Fold this sequence. Notes:
Elements: H1 6-26, H2 32-49, H3 59-80, H4 83-86, H5 100-117, H6 122-132, H7 138-145, H8 149-172
Amino acid sequence: xxxxxxxxxxxxVEKTHGLQLRRFLAARLRNAAADTxxxxxxxxxxxxxxADHETIRNPQAYLFTVASHVLHQxxxxxxxxxxALLESPLECAFVGLxxxxxxxxxxxxxxxxxxxxxxxxxxxxxxxxxxRCDGMxxxxxxxxxxxxxxxxxxxxxxxxxxxxxxxxxxSEVPP
Length: 175
């Protein structure tokens, strides 16, 4: 079986999930018309930087995890241009955000989280993706999964507890 090139992988991800990604980003941006294309490009560039893209079991989940990270960094950069923050001593806390080594380390964290999420039950995982990536309501997720709204809440709580525990474990590991 031939290996799929990074470019082909990213092209396939873009073709399959590009519209969802555009909607995801646009829904979370103040200046969506101007910022969405730039952030989409950044997400795809980060996908091209993944060392071994063939280890990604769920490209959609990975894509939206990267997109969330890009959004977070964008929000921090936007807040850095705020005059109130620039005058603040907190400014120095954000100096290392554009550090490629830190970004690579954070990408590894996302890969590890993705592997960890694969250990969740399929319904818990699906509820998390439908909620966080697709922006579906509890009612819509319940209908899609064939469970009650209350069960969707339980699934989401279980997924978030799992993520929090995994992040805590990862932060306890010495570098």
